[in-house]
Amino acid sequence: MKRGISYTQAFLTLLQRDLKIAIRHRGDIFNPLLFFVLVVTLFPLGIGPEPQVLSRVAPGIIWVAALLASMLSLERLFKADFNDGSLEQMLLSPQPLPILVLSKVLAHWILTGVPLILVAPLLAVLLHLESNSYTALILTLTVGTPVLSLLGAIGVALTVGLRKGGVLLSLLILPLYIPVLIFATSAIDAAGLNLPYTGQLAIIGAMLVGSLIMAPFAIGASLRVSTN
Amino acid sequence: MWKWLHSYADPERAYKLASTLLPWFAFSAILLISVGTIWGMLFAPMDYQQGESFRIIYIHVPSASMSMAAYMAMASASFVGIVWQIKTADWVAASIAPIGAVITFIALLTGAAWGKPMWGTWWVWDARLTSELVLLFLYLGVISLYASFEDKVLAARAAGILAIVGVINIPIIKYSVDWWSSLHQPATIKITEKSAMPMEMLAPLLINIVGFGLMIGAITLVRYKAEILARNGMRPWVRELAKAEASK
Amino acid sequence: MADNNQQQVLVRANELTCIREDRILFDQLSFEINAGDIVQIEGPNGAGKTSLLRIIAGLSRPYAGEIQYIDTDITQCRDEFNEDLLYLGHLAGVKSELTANENLNFNLRLSGYDDFDSYDLLAKVNLGGFEEALAGHLSAGQHRRTALARLWHTNCKIWILDEPFTAIDKKGVEELEQLFIKHTQSGGCVIMTTHQDMSLITDEVLRKIKLDYRFV
């Protein structure tokens, strides 16, 4: 009996498993996406259809909706594994927990973050976003949504064992999302005015690196508390 | 150092330490706050620009500065609790959180009350007020996470992790909010440049800041003692203590 | 158990205290589990059997005390301990969206093995023919067997099993008992809870840790 599984293989095995499960359980992918689209379509109905007004608030609306959609979809990140005992097996696996956790978050981002990025330009059209802001929108979403997933996963890990997680989760993680929101929307605004926005993008990138390094440990520690 | 710290991992010793410290904190807090507040409210010179309303500074600034300090203290206690697995340190964090939230709320309230005569409106999205509001949310998160767990030993550990995550994020949030407000605020609404405060105005302020710190310390100790008793209700030493109290 | 090389202490509990919602489940509990032991944790419902198993596995932290794995606190040597630990809890850790084969493959790879024949292992737990069936469509017993199949391919010494015989038929129980005996004879140990009577593992081989429910 040989134990020849490397960290990379363990990472990929878990990634593959999570993707497979999600594909057999498609609703989980589409519901948050639908929520994202719905929230965005509500705004023109709420504040009026004037293109000038909409294009002024479009970056903020799209990003706030993305924050909410990300939070909503994250709620299920560890729930199923917690309920059927797989999570315990992961905690007791000889593979380092931060690597396994990172794999789960990546799978989750591929399933929920990427569709969000793909559908965002469509919503930008609905909201009359400045045409020169599109690249900035896609770039900020690409760099920013993984940060949301990583930070959000901490909150999810802390609440996975609780029966009433939902509202609590928003209180735990939305304040942590504020910096991403600020820099992302300002990057899109800057792009709309033909100003450089690499600075804002670099800051979001730095947040991504920071959360990639630190969040897996916090998530792991939180999961150990939650399964206690 | 760690030996010294570890000896207070025992709830009974931590309880005794808290009982010894409490009167010192309480008396010095009462003394400093009364001196600082009376001096500030009645005797300190009036600000020539803002008139009497500036005196709210003697409540606002101490509570605002202590709201951040209390979060730091909470996160430090959680850090000790998690790294060295000391339950009594987790409980310190759990005892600070509600006090920190109240102090933050006071800072917000006095900030708004000060804003009314200054800016003509109760609320402006000023960088400091916004950061303070986010801080309040962070506190509320810790408190409600703690309240949601039935097992309070676990609750304290979970809240501790959240406090540490929060403390890493606070500088980032603060920086981003400052940057955001510099981007969006027209220059007209801005707190008057910190002119050199004359000594007679500054001294009561400093006294009150220290006094508020001590007051938070004292209330934390009271809550901490209650927390230890609640977690150790079935321990023999708590029962003896209860008997001794009852026979008094 | 007179054999000298079997006297190695694998797991030692030092003055464990477990408190759940203001009730002391056990206090200052100490014991040693040697290589070659089959240990059953006994006690009425609510006495803390599962809590004790989870504490030994390192999933729960005791209120006070520690678990040692070969003389080191398990929180200090989690990786080494996990390499040597096979824990199966109440919940089987089997995903209903995956097939029996996929489940076993994943669980074994998660424990680090890459040299196994999962069809062969599933045949050993009488799941031949069900390899590609979704676990969600299997019966409770088959579900359980999917998880138990790991026991046939492991080099972990410490097995911690919470009610392993639940939903398993008589013949299956006997096969498991044989496996436990073989495992302990080759230097491992089994720590478990069960409500069922065992036929092969008699009271002479079985060590018991009794927990009783009490009010303070």
UniProtKB/TrEMBL annotation, chain A:
Pfam families: CcmB (PF03379). Keywords: Cell inner membrane, Cell membrane, Cytochrome c-type biogenesis, Membrane, Transmembrane, Transmembrane helix, Transport. It is a multi-pass membrane protein. It is found in: Cell inner membrane. The chain crosses the membrane at residues 29-48, 60-78, 99-124, 136-160, 167-188, 200-223. It comes from the Bacteria. Required for the export of heme to the periplasm for the biogenesis of c-type cytochromes. Belongs to the CcmB/CycW/HelB family. This is Heme exporter protein B. It comes from Shewanella electrodiphila.
